[in-house]
Design brief:
2 domains; 23 strands; alpha/beta; 7-stranded mixed β-sheet; single chain; Aldehyde Dehydrogenase, Chain A, domain 2; Aldehyde Dehydrogenase, Chain A, domain 1
């Protein structure tokens, strides 16, 4: 049991205004593994006030170099507690052990290290020749007090995507972790204290949806950074639009992996399995639509079936197991509903489609559907579980059209022996990220985000810092010698 009875607000652990608590359940054992208090609007107001006070305090005088050093210290703090955090997130999320280590914990540390390097190189102030006479200064100043809304699938990693650019820009933030996974966020708060983050720069308050909306609507919040479902993102975006409030929305995906006729299947199939079934299929960048040429369809179906069937489902704390449980019973029911719909619409289950024999836990067997057409529900909607759909195409032009024929546009991949062909496909598929002969859905030095219903704005890279900044132009008279600031 990991029990917290206070919120992290203003650099301190403070008692909640209410007395409601949230019990955190393991998706593997279905037993209670911890608890946290649940915020009232008064608690959230206190956190926003702390973030506002910090933004208007000495924090605004920190230089980019000082902020970069702080980001490095946070990265080092995560690495120093790697084993503890890996075990905790495996128990909270049900993610397989090695994915928890590399995809959740060490990736979060890498995000902070990447932002440290990008902060040192970022043009917070630059001089340009003016078009109207004298020179101008273009400044990128911190956006202000931010709200970070965190999902349950990769909680610590998404925390890093919110906190790192906040610190890099000189802004402040109030984090609301998901009700399913608040424990790692509070351990992260301990790392912030050890790293020397000034009081109020980062505040962490667990809350339900209603109090989360109170945070989004708060008049002292200047920007909302949200990762989660497209439905929730639309609502948050509407609120921000009403209030002319800045927002970044990183939402769902239904990404396609295009296998070309010349692809090396020994290399492509493991990459697709990694990209499609990572984190038990609970990943927005998951490659869940596999587009296969008609000339090799049966061969690819057989290779994929063998690979999917080999994904061992079981206790995620055992490093030998490749698939853990889904986050909750409601999520398992959702995935099983999609499996039933796929069968009803004429798709064929090649492997999986059922529950593995487990004494407890919200498990669904890794599943491969064949005979899927691009208009079926399982090919169009985000399932968020270990389910792949194999779709036949005739020409590469057809495959590109199928990849683009979807409401989402987050990620994608292409597998081919011809790199030039792969790059051509990548340039024509309308997604925010794309891998050629890799399942890698993002790079920490490049912008990450989606087209269409996959969201608005970008995270990571210099663009990730820019999204937490406001632009200011300062005009000066002709002949001015301009001293540069920070």
């Amino acid at each position: 049991m990991l029990t917290f009875d206070k919120f992290f607000i203003g650099g301190e652990w403070v008692a909640p205004a209410g007395n409601e608590t949230l019990k955190v359940l393991s998706p593997t054992t279905e037993e209670v593994i911890g608890s946290v208090p649940v915020a009232t609007p008064a608690d959230m107001d206190r956190a926003v006030a702390a973030a506002k006070a910090a933004f208007n305090g000495p924090w605004r005088d920190w230089t980019p170099e000082q902020r970069a050093e702080l980001l490095t210290k946070i990265a080092d703090g995560i690495k120093s507690r790697q084993d503890e955090l890996t075990g905790l997130i495996t128990n909270e999320v049900g993610a397989p052990y090695f994915f928890s280590m590399f995809g959740q914990v060490l990736s979060a540390a890498m995000v902070f290290d990447s932002f440290a390097a990008n902060t040192r190189a970022f043009p917070f102030e630059e001089q340009r020749a003016g078009a109207m006479g004298g020179p101008i200064l273009v400044r990128r100043e911190p956006v202000g007090v931010c709200a970070g809304i965190i999902p349950w699938n990769v909680p610590l990693f998404i925390i890093a995507l919110k906190v790192a650019p906040t610190i890099a820009s000189g802004s402040t933030i109030v984090l609301k972790p998901a009700p399913e996974t608040p424990l790692d966020a509070n351990v992260f708060a301990e790392i912030l204290v050890e790293a020397g983050v000034p009081a109020g720069v980062v505040n962490i308050v667990a809350a339900d949806r209603e109090v989360g909306e109170h945070l989004v609507r708060h008049p002292d919040i200047d920007k909302v950074s949200f990762t989660g479902s497209t439905a929730a993102g639309r609502k948050i975006g509407a609120i921000c639009g009403e209030q002319l409030k800045r927002c970044t929305l990183e939402l769902g995906g239904k990404s396609a992996a295009i296998i070309c006729e010349d692809a090396d299947l020994e290399a492509a199939i493991p990459a697709i399995i990694q990209g499609g079934l990572m984190n038990n299929g609970q990943a927005c960048v998951a490659l869940t639509r596999v587009l296969a040429p008609a000339s090799r369809y049966d061969e690819i179906k057989g290779a994929l079936a063998t690979a999917v069937a080999s994904q061992i489902a079981g206790d995620p704390t055992n490093p030998e197991n490749m698939t853990g449980p889904l986050i909750a019973e409601r999520q398992r029911e959702r995935v099983e509903g999609y499996i039933a719909k796929g069968k009803a619409e004429g798709a064929t289950v090649v492997t999986g489609g059922d529950r593995p024999d487990m004494a407890s836990g919200h498990f669904v067997s890794p599943t491969l559907f064949a005979d899927v057409t691009n208009d079926m529900t399982i090919a169009r909607e985000e399932i968020f579980g270990p389910v792949l759909s194999l779709i036949k195409y005739d020409t590469l032009e057809d495959a590109i059209a199928m990849a683009n024929d979807n409401d989402y546009g987050l990620a994608g991949a292409c597998y081919t022996a011809d790199l030039a062909k792969g790059l051509d496909v990548a340039r024509r598929v309308r997604t925010g990220t794309f891998g050629v002969n890799t399942a890698q859905g993002m790079d920490f030095n490049g912008p990450f985000g989606g087209f269409k219903s996959s969201g608005i704005g970008r995270e990571l890279g210099p663009e990730g810092i820019a999204s937490f900044c406001e632009y200011k132009t300062i005009s000066l008279p002709g002949g001015s010698e301009v001293p540069m600031g920070a």
